[in-house]
Design brief:
The protein has a 5-stranded parallel beta sheet with strand order 2-5-6-1-7. A 3-stranded antiparallel beta sheet has the order 8-10-9. Strand 9 and strand 10 form a beta hairpin. The relative contact order is 0.13. It has 2 domains: about 200 residues, P-loop containing nucleotide triphosphate hydrolases (Rossmann fold), CATH 3.40.50.300; about 80 residues, Winged helix-like DNA-binding domain superfamily/Winged helix DNA-binding domain (Arc Repressor Mutant, subunit A). Helix content is about 50%, strand content about 10%. The structure holds adenosine-5'-diphosphate and magnesium ion. The site of adenosine-5'-diphosphate has 17 residues, from helix 2 and helix 13.
């Protein structure tokens, strides 16, 4: 086994994203006017893109970045989520001496820092948390620092949003505050990222964000980028143990398309087994994943919905029976399907899921014969 200097025989690749990085850069160089929703299927590279972007921007200008990963934060809470937890997401009491987390050399995983006095008053309802946030933005503005607030993995709030009217109102209030900070007072850049386009759409509709937000889709890689990567494994992934031919690369593209996480997964497997074997097992795995999802009491209904995707790539919200919406919602939540909030379209989470769905029907047809 040949190793590179870091001691790994395979490294994390970062391919392309020129267009996406340029978009974000333009956006941050304009005075804040709207909320930005970054959406795209699971593992389409949203978080990685944001990190890369922040790393680049930090070298160029003075930013104050508050990056909240809700999945990470929310899973820290146990039991019922309440107003106190909500405050804990956004505020960090400085005199508790908690240590600051860092994303990269300079990017703080920032919260709004407050002292324990303010915290107490907020909990008693004597101080409005949104006012505290606004004051912080104003302070930064005065110092010539651009505030950037990023909320990643918004879907982590899905549960509390759906289950509790009070929490829902709180979240809607939060979004109204974001609108005030962007569209109305132009104080801060606010980016919301999520792989659950359905939930984004719900929040967007409930909070009436039509004229105050912008959507940007982060999708899997294009074919030309995948080819560039796979034909230059040493350059992008530091892999020296094997190379791939054009034909091999085409085969991988056919199964997983531009899904980077899955490409990385296949590249790892290739240390141990030949390509055809790896891909055969991969397809089998994807079929099993669909079987695992489908086999339950609602099987017939789920099959009816998924069967549409046997010959087609997608279907629109108008095509579905309103009574099936709940099931589709669940398929999106479980990352079987993706819902694109700008096109109101459902489609498989990625190419490999589409293979899984087709194989499911082929095999069940065979069994039915
Ligand atoms: N531009 C890229 N090139 C190669 N791999 C990438 C790229 N962006 C992301 N990845 C990989 O894809 C996986 C998912 O990325 P992530 O940013 O977590 O997706 P998301 O936040 O959209 O769910 C990670 O393993 C990451 O290393
Ligand atoms: Mg992410």
């Amino acid at each position: 086994m040949i190793k590179d200097k870091s001691g790994y025989r395979k490294d994390v690749a970062f391919i392309d994203r020129e267009k996406e990085l340029a978009f974000l850069k333009d956006w941050i160089n304009e005075r804040p006017e709207s909320l930005l929703f970054l959406h795209g299927p699971k593992s389409s590279g949203k978080t990685t893109l944001l990190y890369k972007f922040l790393e680049q921007m930090e070298k160029e200008q003075e930013l104050d970045i508050k990056f909240l990963n809700l999945r990470k934060i929310y899973t820290d809470f146990s039991g019922d989520f309440d107003f106190k937890d909500f405050l804990n997401i956004f505020f960090n009491v400085e005199d508790k001496g908690e240590k600051k987390e860092k994303l990269s050399a300079g990017i703080n995983v920032g919260f709004f820092k407050i002292d324990s006095e303010i915290e107490k008053k907020m909990q008693q309802g004597k101080v409005d948390p949104f006012k505290v946030m606004e004051r912080e933005f104003l302070r930064l503005k005065k110092e010539g620092i651009k505030p950037v607030l990023i909320i990643d993995e918004l879907q982590a709030l899905d549960n509390i949003y759906m289950n509790n009217g009070r929490d829902r109102r709180l979240i809607i209030e939060l979004f109204n505050f974001f609108v005030a900070m962007t569209k109305e007072s132009h104080l801060a850049h606010i980016i919301i990222a999520s792989s659950d386009g359905y939930f984004i759409n719900t929040v967007y509709t409930d909070s009436r964000l039509k004229k105050s937000s912008k959507f940007f889709k982060v999708n899997y890689l294009l074919k030309e980028d995948v080819m560039e990567w796979l034909l230059n494994l040493e350059k992008y992934s530091k892999i020296k143990d094997y190379t791939l031919t054009g034909e091999d690369a085409e085969k991988i593209w056919d199964i997983v398309g531009g899904s980077m996480w899955e490409i990385q997964d296949i590249l790892s497997d290739l240390f141990r087994a030949p390509l055809d074997e790896v891909l055969r097992l991969y397809k089998k795995k994807m079929r099993n994943l669909i079987v695992d999802y489908v086999v339950r009491p609602e099987q017939k209904k789920i099959e009816k919905l998924l069967r549409r995707l046997k010959e087609r790539d997608e279907f629109s919200k108008e095509e579905i029976d309103p009574e099936d919406e709940g099931l589709l919602r669940d398929m999106v939540r479980q990352n079987i399907l993706y819902f694109d909030p700008t096109e109101a379209m459902y489609y498989p989470q990625g190419k490999s899921y589409h293979h899984g769905i087709r194989l499911y029907f082929e095999k069940s047809l065979e069994r039915g014969k």
